[in-house]
Design a protein that fits this description.
alpha/beta; 271 residues; Rossmann fold; single chain
Length: 271
Amino acid sequence: MNMKNLYGILLICTVLTGCGNVSQQDPVPAHDSFTMPSKQVGETRTINVWTPATYKTDTISLPVMYMADGGLKEDFPHIANTIAALVAAKAIPPVILVGIENTQRARDLTGPTEVAKDKEIAPVVGGSEKFRAFINDELFPEIDKRYRTSGKKGILGESASGLFVVETFFLKPEMFDYYIAFDPSLWWNNHALVRTSKEHLAKFPPTAKRFWFAGSDAADIAPYTKELSDILKSENPAGIKWNYADEPTETHKTIFRATKEKAIKWTLGNN
């Protein structure tokens, strides 16, 4: 197999399934699950929700952390367990975790692309705008109706989900207060998000945001996460508190689990 074909296989893996998520058997914590129809994406979606132990014994409204790749056989269990441990240790305040189970991952988590090879990854790509509308217009109100929420919201994701996090940060920054992206697939559409980042930062709202992102040794990701870090450093946008974790000893498969604790602590902790 030549390197070009291998590279293509790796791209397909990361976008369709998230190679960093290949599965360790994490214990599934106590949680709620429900389904909801969506006009925006034209299908019924499964939602998994974890609440901290104190949720049932007090009346406090809590912030909400959202995640794609949020199925019980995806990343929801290990992120819920990590947040539970951090809350128990008082490293972060209590927070609700909302996981969105995938149906067509490549469709939902990618924006439009002009690159022919990108379009070959799945039958349908480029649906991130509709997926974002589903979260904003349909899921937010449903979660607010079912749970005591404070209005503060965050989103986290890895690989293609990380791409979606960064895209949302630039295109719809008002949606969330906290953004966490592990090894985001910034190569998508000829690294358009990085190429246009200065334009988006120039129009950024003045409200306070936190943005944590990390890059592994992945040759198709590391140059762009580093470039984005350099741009944020040079532009120094007001209102954005950001942190870049350069992780050259981690691979695309290991970076999520290796850095999730420090990412969540930095983003939600009192720093």
